[in-house]
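Changelog note: in this version the structure field was regenerated for every chain. One regenerated record is shown below for reference.
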Amino acid sequence: MKRKKVDNFKKIFSLLFLIFWCLLIFYFSNQKGDISKNSSNGVIDLLNQFLRIFNDSIDLNNIEGISFLIRKLAHMFLYFVLYIAIFSVFKSFNFLKNIKSYFLILGLCFLYAISDEVHQLFITERSFGIIDILIDTFGASLGFFFLSFGNKKIKSQDKRMKS
C-alpha cells in the first residue's frame, strides 16, 4: 500500500513539474523582445558580480556577443530540463519500454520547440527562429545523452553487484 502511494506521488509530482516547466518556457517566450533582452542583461550583470569576486577588472559587457551566447545557453538549458521532465513522466507511468521511448521524448521536445517559435510570431519584437529550434533540440539531445549514459552506467553497476 505504501509503495502505491509513493508511485502515485511520483506520477503527480512529475506531471506537475512538467506542466510548470512548459509554462515557464511559455512565460519566457511570451515576453516582448526588449524585456527578454533585459533578462539576458540581468544574467550578465549577475555573472559580472560573481566574477568580480575573483578579478575586479572582468566585465562581461565588454565581450561582443555575450548576450547572444547567454540567450542560446538559456534555450539549451530549458530544453535539457524539458527532456528530463518528460522522461520523468514517462518513467513514472511506465511508458519507457525501449530506446524508441527516448527518441519519442526527443521528438516531443522538438515539437514543443516548434510550437514555442510559432507562439513568438505573435509577440511584439519576437520572431520565428529555425536556429532556436535547433538549439532547443540540441539542449534536449543533451538530456537524452545524459539520461541514456546514466541508465547504462546504472545497469552496468547493477550487473557487477549481482555477480
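Spot check on this record: The CA atoms of residues 47 and 68 lie 15 Å apart. The chain has a mean pLDDT of 84.
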